């Protein structure tokens, strides 16, 4: 679909009939990164159901989004 500012490919990945991006969110293995989210109507409901079912990372009491983790590494005082 695109290339990000670091030269990485941004894509929707499918394997057979499975949309891998959405499956990861549905299984609680990925976050909806709302800053760049192009299809919130698909991603956010999947994330909400995974949170409510405490799937994957949502089993943790206070999971830290990756963008917050990276920001804290850049600025340890955060």
Number of strands: 4
From the alpha-carbon coordinates, what is the Rg to the nearest angstrom? 14 Å
Largest sheet: 2 strands, antiparallel
Structure class: alpha+beta
- Per DSSP, the total helix count is 3
Kindly state the percentage of residues in helix.
Answer: 25-40%
Run of helices and strands: EEEEHHH
Uncertain stretches of 5 or more adjacent residues:
none
* Terminal CA distance: 33 Å
**Strand arrangement, largest sheet?**
1-2
Mean pLDDT: 92
Describe the structure.
It is flat, with a radius of gyration of 14 Å. The N and C termini lie far apart (33 Å). The strands form 2 sheets. Strands 1-2 form a two-stranded antiparallel sheet. The chain has a two-stranded antiparallel sheet with strand order 3-4. β1 and β2 form a beta hairpin. The protein is an alpha+beta fold and 78 residues long. The longest helix is centred in the middle third of the chain and has 13 residues. The chain has 3 helices and 4 strands.
């Amino acid at each position: 679909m695109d290339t990000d500012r670091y030269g990485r490919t941004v894509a929707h990945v499918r394997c057979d009939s499975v949309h891998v991006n959405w499956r990861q969110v549905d299984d609680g293995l990925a976050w909806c990164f709302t800053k760049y989210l192009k299809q919130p109507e698909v991603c956010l409901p999947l994330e909400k159901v995974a949170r409510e079912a405490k799937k994957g990372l949502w089993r943790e009491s206070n999971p830290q989004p990756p963008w917050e983790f990276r920001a804290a590494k850049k600025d340890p005082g955060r």
